[in-house]
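User: I want to check something. If I give you two sequences, will you return the structure for each one separately, not as a complex?

Assistant: Yes, each is folded on its own. Here is the first sequence with its structure:
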Amino acid sequence: MLINLIRNWRRRRIIRKSAITAEQWSRAFARLPLLKGLSTDEQRRLQELAILLMHEKSFEPAQGLILTCDMLIHIVLQACLPILNLGLQAYDGWVSVIVYPEEFMPRRQYMDEADVMHEDYAALSGEAWQRGPVIVCWQDARIAGELDGHNLLIHEFSHKLDMQNGVANGLPPLHSTMARQAWTQVFSQAYAHFQQHCHGRDYYGIDCYAATAPAEFFAVMSEVFFERPAVVKQHYPEVYQQLRLYYRQDPLQRLGM
């Protein structure tokens, strides 16, 4: 109890001492259609979460990127939207966000069936490491939040939520009011259906990258849930219901889409 009181006092102090102006916040909200429909109280709470995330995580520009305050606000507001009703503790267990100017190419090593080690490089827009950093490129993060169903920031930060149970597998820690069996059944059936029918770039307007793994299905569905909720509601209504229960939000009602 005392620890919680001290933590809450400390967080209120951090929020109170924030140097970000009301004009900066107003400008950031206005530039993000994703945040349309939030009530005054929700905007306040999202802003407070964003301040705390900026304070508790290290935001590290890479490859010469100059990370301005406006850029940082743009990132953290969207990163905090999924945890608006979950709390900052949902992002416990890791410390940094690395921002590249453009796609980055990490080196991968793998062993083939003949026990021969290989290396390859693949261009990535984002990545989330187990107990490691979230990595995003500003080129794609800059256009996140435009309600087109693609949101790099929500995608990568939802992986972090998924990883709170260990390795990302499409099953984040569920609330006590939710049934693990129901989640597993709904997502397994939807994932199998999506895999079977997704042969192009997208299916129902949902990126076919979601068909590559259960963890990616959860992350992509989270993107669409927040950006184009009517698509999820129409084609995978049971998935929409599970996400609504998990995130404790109803974007379809908020956005009026």
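And separately, the second sequence with its own structure:
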Amino acid sequence: MTHLSTHQGLTSYVVIPARLQSTRLPNKMLLRETGKTLIQHSYEAAREAKRPLGFCVATEDREIADEVVAFGGQAVLTEPGIRSGTDRVARVAQEAALSGIDIVVNVQGDEPELAGEHIDLVIQALEDTPTAVMATLAAPIRNREALEDPACVKVVFDRFGRALYFSRAAIPAVKRWDDRLMTDIQPHFYQHIGLYAYRRDFLLELTKLPSTDLEQLEDLEQLRVLEAGHTISVGVIDHAAAGIDTPEDYRAFVERQAARQMRRSA
């Protein structure tokens, strides 16, 4: 990793943690039915962001690292057995080359349709909230099935955009349901988007914080931050990009890519 120069204001850097192991979609990072691997799509999508000074993929798998280098990206090999993507990002943040970076952004490797402007927004959300150690994004939920799906993580936040709680349950819980709640102009429910910006110093401390009861019950790492008394800033976007978790997700992505290609060539 080359040394990064800094500029006026807060500096930022994107790390994309990636690994081959995937229960529901084996070797998904290296799937290439579109002509490009999934990790290349995600890397190129992230590169559309304007604010970060640099980008890299952090992986313990040589095959992924070789693929990233082959398409012209930056790869960092980390030791095997790192527990989570956050820990892998923190491991890269420890590098001396990132010592001048203020904000480290964690972008998932299975988000090939993430908008670069959303990366810029999550950086801005952290900059705009000096008391926050971390920022993330949320999008309105307009579908009751999604609201009640435990795989769709929900977030509630105050009028200043500070997270109050994250949950797999439907929050806020509605005492008297009315279907019009899903279509009101002002959204009542928000899906949490798994894109994170951390102040680098806090990220290095986060991995040392003990796991908490709420974190374990919900299986949501960000609750550890709230339980420790820290502030998480939440930026709002119009809609969530589709992540790739299952074979069905990947097939749908391949079809969308083919449709885009046809429109471009028409």
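Because they were folded independently, the notes below concern the second chain alone. The first helix runs from residue 38 to 46. The CA atoms of residues 8 and 82 lie 34 Å apart.
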